[in-house]
Structure formats: structure tokens, C-alpha cells
Amino acid sequence: MPRLAIGPEFPGELSALAQPVRRDAVVALRRFLLNVSGAPHPERVRGARDPRVATLRLAEGHRGVVVRQRDVYWLRTVLPGPDAWSYARRHRYGVNPAIGVVEEWDAEALERVEPALRRSARSHGLFDAICDGDLLGLGLDAHALPLFRLITTEADVAALEPLLPPTQHLPLAVLARGGSLAEAWRELDAWRATEGETGPVDSEDLYAALLRSPDQAAFVPDKLALDRVLNAPSWCTFLYPPQHRLARAARYEHPVLVVGGAGTGKTVTALHRAAHLAAHGSGPVLLVTFSQGLAEELSARLDQLIEDDILRKRVEVDNAERLAMRIVSDAEGRRPPLVGPGARSLAELTNEALRLLSIATGDLLDDVDPGRKPYRHIVVDEAQDISPAQWRLLRAAAPHAHDDLFVVGDPHQRVTDTRVALGAVGIPALQHSLRLSYRLPQELLSFVVRLRGGGPTSGLVKGMTEMYGYRATHNGERPMVRAYDTPESELAGLRTTVESWLADGVPAEEIAVGARTPRLVRDARRALTGLSVRASTFQHLKGLEFERVALIGVAEGVVPEPLPDEPEARARALQRERSILFVACTRARSMLYISHSGRGSPFLPL
């Protein structure tokens, strides 16, 4: 029986086909898995740069491109016949000799580039000072080494990026900008999906390489697995190596903190960690976040990720305020009022919940009796906005044991006035970082970093957290900033923009409109009457993402709101206002539109 692995682009390409073609392709793949009569068979590609590449006839006029080694098939794409043959001839595939992951090369384009590099080559190559052995030790491909030796400028390396696997380009980019061999190795090593793998890599073993590449391949042993991969959102199936390494680690001896910029996949990592603990942990799991709205969003996404009902029931999703409310309600036999006579503030309820929990479970500092705690594992999303009292409550809700707390957050996206170092609340977390944004294009990432201010901010561990080093995986549209003479013309421009996006085929649910104040949100909704797009305050966009986002009223006096006079309070409020705008801007996956009437916000980059 064939062992079939699906590539990450294939499900989306399949879903874009006409329904009859898509149906026939799925039937063909099911037959292929079962190896029955009528199943498609691999056809060799004349002129292929990689002899292992073949095509499968999946539907009338459409073929899949596979990389084949014995009974292993890696399905890369589905295209109309001529395009499939061209794709199959264009690419070659390999295994990185240092870390063992699969690599795809645009071999045809590289062949065209080589003469240009030769013509522009100077007397000294950029990497002349580095011997072949050191370059090969960084996993650089031996067959491509002569090409790399022709590189004379950092611009040459940047131009080659679209044609090279990231595990080839990233070490070269580090060396090109003057980085050391050790720095280049760290860049490569970050693409391991599993910690602790040692020993030689068999560059001829495609199956082992695919298993090491969760972002590139998902094996489907049967029809059910195939249907799940084809129908589930990509984030459910294909994890980037840093995300996979953190989410699927077998065991953490201490609390873990994962810090990452916008679009780096912190929430996806948290969701997968919760699912992993549900399957392999030793007790109930709490996935907690900043607000009830975000908790509902996470719960819905967890429903997509965990298909097994028994495993899904092992994960409870909540926010810290509701957790405190529930503990107090259970102890007192009724829901405590938040308004009126006898009302307590949320901070008072949190402190009371901590007191009640300490009475019920004790203050265990080891794993003597973890069953006395309400949860065995706690996963925290949006950690930067959890208050110190809430952190103490969460710390008390799980035993001090391995895999107790897994925390993700970004201090630069803080929208409250909370400042806390986890060590100060009894959580000595070990920090890991995600620095590659998979959601934001580089143009948008550069814009929002300048908007936010790239300087450090107080972190979740002792010290400061900087934005230096974040980068994107792809390029895209530059953000649009539009100035209008009047609020009325600004709202008219908003409607025109949203109507053009809908006309482009962007689904209404993939468009969001944001404003700083509820009044401006109401104005936007009136201007968009009849257009079913979401309109919210900046804060209520937190944790969500959309294909295109429009932000209105980003004007002086509105963003930021009037600030207090006291210097320290003013500085904190200014940072919070920057963070709120930063969070709203980073909800966009592909396009960001910002408008204002009158003078623009001082936060907007020049």
C-alpha cells in the first residue's frame, strides 16, 4: 500500500477547483490510498530535473505532482495538465544534510540565474573567506555550492530567496550580513521540528525527512485522515517547525513562556499545546485567555483541532475573570453580584477565589498530590494582559510539577495597564521566542514596527523585551494611509474602500473595520449599512485576524486619547495607546487601510 503525504498548498488548491473536478480528485486519491482498480498511477516526467518526480491523473484535465521514493508519495500540488508537467520539470527536491528536513528547489530558475551571477562576479566572492567544509556543515547543498560561490553581494542573496529553500537561504543571509558561523547555525537549527535529534542524516531517506517536516507534509494512512487534512484549516495540520517544537515537546520540567510578535503563531502554538496535553498529559487542561470573547474564539478553534470528543472534554476554555467568578460561586452557592449592594469588584473576587482555592487544595510546592488541584495543566494565551492577582490564581490552580504552565504572549501587544514579571508571582518561566511572522507581509510588519516603536518594553520575565529581529516570510501590499478633509468624506471613503474589497471577491467575514471609540464604531456601521462586515473598537479586534482591515479616525486627539498630566502615568498611557493601535493594525493578513480627517495621529509613521 502507498504511504501518501499531503503538502501544505494542496488542500487550498483543491478547494479552489470546480466542484466536479474537486470531487473526482478526492475519489482518485481515495482509490490511490487503497491501491484498487482504477486508481491513478504515477507517470514519469520527461526532462524532469529530479527523476523521482511524477504526476498522477486526478481528474479530467488536472494532475497532481508527486515526489516518489519506493512506496512513499509526497503530493505537492494539483494543476491543469500542462501546468502540472511544467511544475514537475521545474523543481528538484532534497534533504537538508544537517537537520534532515525536506527541501524544494526552483531548479529551472536557478539555471537561468547562474549566467547572470557569473557575468556580475567580481574578483572576490562574498563567501571566499569561508571554506567549503564550513559551508557544508551549515547544511548547504553540495550541488549548489558552485552557485553560492558566485555570490558577491548581500543583494545577490536577497534576490535568490524566492528560489531557495528557507533552510538554504537563511544561513546564507546571516553570513552575507557579516554574521558568524555560529549565528548561521542557530538560524538553521531553528527549523528543527523536534528537539534533541542527533546522529547522521540519511539524505536519501525521503520518508524520514517528511516526518521531520511537519510544515511540509502530513501523512494520511486512510480515507478519514485524508478527508480531515483536505477539509481542516491549514493551521490544524501544518505547523511551522518552531511552533511544532514548542507545542509537541514531550515534557517541560519548568513553566514555559513563549514570546512572539504579531503573526508568529503564538495562539496556534497554545492551541496545539493544549491538544497535546489533552492526549498525552495526566489530568484536566485549562486553556485561559484575556477576555470572554477570546475564550469563545479559542473554544471554537479547539473544536476544529480536536475531533475526538473524549479528548476535547479534557480541555476547558475560559478567561481568568470567569474562573474566579466560578470558584467563588461554587463556594457561596450563588453568583456574586457585580453591581448594587454587596457587590465586589473583579479584583476582590479574584483575591477571594485565591483564598478559597488555597483552603481547598493547600499550597503544594511539589507533585506530591497533584489531584488536589482543579487542573493538572494550564495553557495561557494573551499573557501580557493577565493581572498579577489573576496570575496568582492560575498558579494556585495547578500543581508545581512538570508541564504545569505553558504561557504565550507579546508585551508589545499589551492593551491594559498590567505590568508583571512572572517570577514575581511564583512562576519562574523559561522563555522561548518566535521571531518569524507567517501572517503579516514584510511591508505591513515594517510599518507596524515603526508605528509601535521598536524600543524595548517591560517583559513577562525580568528585564525588557525588544522587537528587534522580527521578520516576515513573504512580501505583500504596503499599508494605505488616507487623509480626508471632513469626517463625512472619510466615512464615504471607507464605504468605497469596503465595497471595492467585496467586489474583489473578499468574503465579508474576512473584512473588519475598527475605530478607537464606540461613537466612531457607530458612525462606521451607519456608513456601511447593507454591507455585512464586522465593525468593532480596536480592543475588540484583539486576538482575531482578517484578510483586510480598515481603521478609521486615526487622528490627532483620538489616537491617542487625551493623556494624563502626571509624567509617569502619561508615559504608561502613551505606550498603552500605541499598543492598542498596533494590535488593531496587525489583525490584517494581506491589506491594511488607515484613514483620518484633519491632522493624522502622531503615531503614524512618516
Automatic annotation (TrEMBL):
Recorded GO CC terms: cytosol
Domain UvrD-like helicase C-terminal span(s) in chain numbering: 532-596
Matches recorded under Gene3D superfamilies: P-loop containing nucleotide triphosphate hydrolases
Keywords tagged on the record: ATP-binding, Helicase, Hydrolase, Nucleotide-binding
Alphabetized SUPFAM superfamilies for the sequence: P-loop containing nucleoside triphosphate hydrolases
GO biological process: recombinational repair
Pfam families: AAA_19, UvrD_C
This protein's record includes keyword Nucleotide-binding: yes
Name of the protein described by the UniProt record: DNA helicase UvrD
Organism: Nonomuraea zeae
Lineage of origin: Bacteria, Bacillati, Actinomycetota, Actinomycetes, Streptosporangiales
